[in-house]
């Protein structure tokens, strides 16, 4: 059965959070260490991390603030008639920065602590945030400015799934690259994010994974400095097509700490297994950034197969499950045009300053 749009939206965000939570306990372990701790099959169910089972990390935290920024941008545009979406998302990231106990260096940047998302206690917990994300946000001079660094860490790509859910098909790639470039200045850091968002947009529109992949590669090829990301994407396709089960396990796809590797690993797992549970389990059982690769794989597979494909045993223990579902539904409402951005309720939830 073809998933409904609401199911795809919920699947994408909840799937990303599930992959994040599954990978969280083993993020800094080698594959050998994972097997020593959890058995030869590796980690296959949630384990303790951050003082609970099913805990999300900074990956899901920042994904939620990306979603919030998009919704706040919609409210701002409806009420003020003008909006630069990356700047509004940047403001949401500044709010996330405050939840991490950090101080914005430029005191002239306004950081309003309003709306409902900021009140969630789990978002005020420091969950191994990326150094580049923290430093870029601390040093920002103006909202919407790109980062002045040469980083291509995966902190840009792991948070942009909401862009793919709601952006226009022909605008998802560009908007996601702008959002990623707020913290990561290397082309591969932002182009990987553009690729993921564009792929998700096509999947949500009903394209198969293969068709979405081919269409997104064509867009990527038109971008400057695309070669590194294209090579990583095509490596994932090639290894999956030959059913090479060791390409991730022996490190040929990298470890996922950098953007194009995290994207490549997620695509490989999604293509190889064509099943949410198997793909996400494979995505976290390697030496490297297990929570980020799990999160991106969960985003893709959740969008493909819908929320029904996510095992109940994982959803039942997932931190912030109901709140993630709520934001997914708000994004779905925005995408279908039924989100009333002019209402007082919308302003209270997502103030469009």
What does this structure look like?
The protein has 353 residues and is mainly α. It has a single domain, classed as ADP-ribosylglycohydrolase fold (Orthogonal Bundle). The chain is 57% helix and 1% strand. The protein has 16 helices and two strands. A two-stranded antiparallel ribbon has the order 1-2. Strand 1 and strand 2 form a beta hairpin. Helix 7 packs antiparallel against helix 8. The termini are far apart. 56% of the residues are buried.
Give the rounded overall mean pLDDT. Answer: 96
> What is the H-and-E element order?
HHEEHHHHHHHHHHHHHH
- What is the beta-strand fraction? under 5%
Q: Helix share of residues? A: 55-70%
* The CATH homologous superfamily: ADP-ribosylation/Crystallin J1
Number of domains: 1
Task: Record the SSE blueprint.
Layout: H1 5-23, H2 31-38, E1 48-49, E2 52-53, H3 58-80, H4 85-99, H5 131-139, H6 161-166, H7 172-181, H8 187-204, H9 209-221, H10 227-241, H11 259-273, H12 276-284, H13 290-305, H14 312-315, H15 321-336, H16 344-349
Antiparallel strand pairs: 1-2
């Amino acid at each position: 059965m073809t998933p409904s749009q609401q199911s795809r939206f919920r699947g994408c965000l909840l799937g990303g959070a599930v992959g994040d939570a599954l990978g969280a306990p083993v993020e800094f372990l080698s594959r050998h260490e994972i097997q020593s701790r959890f058995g030869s099959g590796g980690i296959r169910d949630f384990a303790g991390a951050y003082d609970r089972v099913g805990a999300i990390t900074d990956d899901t935290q920042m994904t939620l603030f990306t979603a919030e920024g998009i919704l706040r941008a919609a409210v701002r545009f409806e009420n003020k008639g003008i909006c630069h979406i990356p700047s509004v998302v940047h403001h949401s990231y500044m709010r996330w920065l405050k939840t991490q106990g950090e101080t914005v260096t430029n005191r002239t940047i306004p950081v309003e602590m309003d709306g409902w998302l900021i009140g969630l206690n789990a978002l005020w917990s420091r969950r191994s945030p990326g150094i580049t994300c923290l430093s870029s946000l601390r040093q920002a001079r103006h909202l919407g400015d790109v980062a002045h660094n040469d980083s291509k860490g995966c902190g840009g790509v792991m948070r942009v799934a909401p862009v793919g859910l709601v952006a226009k098909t022909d605008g998802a790639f560009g908007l996601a690259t702008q959002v990623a470039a707020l913290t990561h200045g290397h082309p591969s850091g932002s182009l990987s994010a553009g690729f993921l968002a564009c792929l998700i947009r096509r999947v949500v529109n009903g394209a198969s994974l293969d068709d979405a992949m081919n269409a997104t590669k064509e867009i990527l090829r038109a971008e400057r400095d695309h070669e590194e990301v294209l090579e990583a994407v095509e490596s994932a396709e090639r290894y999956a097509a030959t059913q090479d089960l060791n390409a991730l396990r022996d490190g040929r796809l990298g470890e996922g700490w950098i953007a194009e590797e995290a994207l490549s690993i997620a695509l490989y797992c999604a293509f190889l297994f064509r099943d949410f549970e198997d793909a996400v389990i494979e995505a976290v059982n390697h030496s490297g950034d297990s929570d980020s690769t799990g999160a991106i794989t969960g985003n893709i597979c959740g969008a493909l197969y819908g929320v029904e494909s996510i095992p109940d045993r994982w959803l039942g223990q997932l931190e912030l499950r109901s709140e993630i579902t709520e934001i997914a539904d708000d994004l779905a409402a925005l995408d279908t045009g039924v989100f009333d951005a002019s209402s007082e309720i919308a302003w209270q939830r997502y103030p469009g300053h």
